[in-house]
Amino acid sequence: MILSVSQPYFAPYPGFFHKVSRSDTFVILDEVQFPRGTTWVTRNRFKNDKGILWMTIPVWKKGLGFQKINEVRIYDEGHHLRKYLASLKSAYGKAPFFQDHLPFLERIFSAGYERLIEFNVDIIRHILKSLGIGTKIRLLSELGIHSTGEQRLVDICMELGARCFLAQNAARKYLNEDLFQRAGIGIEFFRPPSPVYPQLWGEFVPNLSALDLLFNCGPGSRNILSGKRGT
Fold first, then answer.
1. Of 24, 31, 99, 184, which sits 20 to 30 A from 164 (CA to CA)?
2. Helix (H, G, I), strand (E, B) or coil at 21
């Protein structure tokens, strides 16, 4: 069984979902420390007529010290989420498949989520369903694993019966392969693709949120993600 992990990024880029598609089980690291600086857990890039459209989900941080990701609460007193919905409608209203996702977007941006983890995971699950990816999704917080660092990754594999840990090439210099080998777990490294596809608003911009891919390419998105051009 092939297993991979990642933090619960906000509306992740296509490479995130390529990784999930190559895994039998994918574990969302919701119980790790929330990054103190700029992080993809709260922000991502979209595209509009002016170029890059950044969206950052506002969260409570001041005075709270170190938080786990699943403890972080959304701060939306400025109604940022409602404004983001309006921005997406303006940017993608003419995209071929935007209307297919509009009911979901209207629900997600008006649901009044308290915690960031619930908001992000719902978006991730929607994108997975839209891409037809049936990988089993687990949360770290469900597993009762309290180790840290690389040992935590090994323990996740052991707990779920994985014999192969899937990681991006960039992680090779950080992973102690001997630690995995001693536990009887192999590591497979891969380079995530950066698919090119039709976009609105001029010159193609790579590695935007996977929602950009879905809005523009709809049912053909899975083939594009896997490197197949046909629909």
1. 31
2. helix
The closest alpha carbon to 190, from 171, 173, 168, 172, belongs to 168
- The string of pLDDT tens digits covering residues 103-145 is 999 999 998 899 999 999 999 999 999 999 999 999 999 999 9
What are the two backbone dihedrals, phi and then psi, of residue 5, each rounded to the nearest 5 degrees?
-140, 160
Q: Which residues contact 127 (CB under 8 A, 6 or more apart)?
A: 11, 12, 17, 210, 211, 214
CA distance 47 to 24: 32
d(CA 126, CA 120): 10
The per-residue pLDDT for 26 is: 98
Averaged pLDDT of the chain: 95
> In which band, very low, low, confident or very high, does the pLDDT at 78 lie, cut at 50, 70 and 90?
confident
57 near 168, Cβ under 8 Å? no
Domain ranges of the chain: 2-225
Is residue 16 within 8 Å of residue 6, measured between CB atoms? yes
The answer on pLDDT for 230 being more than 50 is no
Q: Which residues contact 175 (CB under 8 A, 6 or more apart)?
A: 150, 153, 167, 187
**Alpha-carbon distances of 13 from 73, 154, 207, 209, rounded to whole Å:** 23, 26, 5, 4
186 SS3 class: strand
- Global pTM reads 0.95
